[in-house]
C-alpha cells in the first residue's frame, strides 16, 4: 500500500492503517522525541502523545509538503508543550551575547558522547540548541514555539554551545591523558 493510500485510510480512522503508519514512522519520530525529552521514558510518553495528535489531526494534512516533515513538526510541538508554561528560560540582554563556535575533530569526539552531552544540557539550552543546530529552526521560529524572546533563544544557544565546548575540551583532555 502506498503512503497516500495509508494516509487516506488513516483519515477514515482505519485502525489497521493507523497501526501500519505507527510501525512505519515510530522509530524516526522516537529519535526526534528523544532529542527534546529529559529521559527515555518522557520521550516514549511524548511519542505516544504525538501519535494521538497525529491521528486526531490527520484530516488536516492536505498532501502538500513532506508528510514526514508534518509528523516531525507535530512530534516536536508535543515535546515543547511540556516546557512552554514552565519557567525554564532566562530573560537576557541581547547585547551581552557572544557567539561561541565549537570546533570538533571527528576523529577525537565520539558521536555517542556528543549526543550524550547534548542530552545532558539543561532543558532551556537543549531545546534551543536542538531546534537551531539540529533541526534548522530560526531564532524567530524558536521564540514563537517556546513563547520566549529571540534574545533569549540567542542567549540559550550561546550558553549551550559554551557548555558543549567545555565538555568536549574536558573529553579531549581525558583522551590525551590516557594516551600518555
TrEMBL record:
<dbReference type="Pfam" id="PF04542">
    <property type="entry name" value="Sigma70_r2"/>
</dbReference>
<dbReference type="InterPro" id="IPR036388">
    <property type="entry name" value="WH-like_DNA-bd_sf"/>
</dbReference>
<protein>
    <submittedName>
        <fullName>Sigma-70 family RNA polymerase sigma factor</fullName>
    </submittedName>
</protein>
<dbReference type="Pfam" id="PF08281">
    <property type="entry name" value="Sigma70_r4_2"/>
</dbReference>
<feature type="domain" description="RNA polymerase sigma factor 70 region 4 type 2">
    <location>
        <begin position="114"/>
        <end position="164"/>
    </location>
</feature>
<dbReference type="InterPro" id="IPR013324">
    <property type="entry name" value="RNA_pol_sigma_r3/r4-like"/>
</dbReference>
<keyword id="KW-0238">DNA-binding</keyword>
<dbReference type="InterPro" id="IPR007627">
    <property type="entry name" value="RNA_pol_sigma70_r2"/>
</dbReference>
<dbReference type="InterPro" id="IPR039425">
    <property type="entry name" value="RNA_pol_sigma-70-like"/>
</dbReference>
<feature type="domain" description="RNA polymerase sigma-70 region 2">
    <location>
        <begin position="21"/>
        <end position="87"/>
    </location>
</feature>
<comment type="similarity">
    <text>Belongs to the sigma-70 factor family. ECF subfamily.</text>
</comment>
<keyword id="KW-0805">Transcription regulation</keyword>
<dbReference type="InterPro" id="IPR014284">
    <property type="entry name" value="RNA_pol_sigma-70_dom"/>
</dbReference>
<keyword id="KW-0804">Transcription</keyword>
<dbReference type="InterPro" id="IPR013249">
    <property type="entry name" value="RNA_pol_sigma70_r4_t2"/>
</dbReference>
<dbReference type="InterPro" id="IPR013325">
    <property type="entry name" value="RNA_pol_sigma_r2"/>
</dbReference>
<keyword id="KW-0731">Sigma factor</keyword>
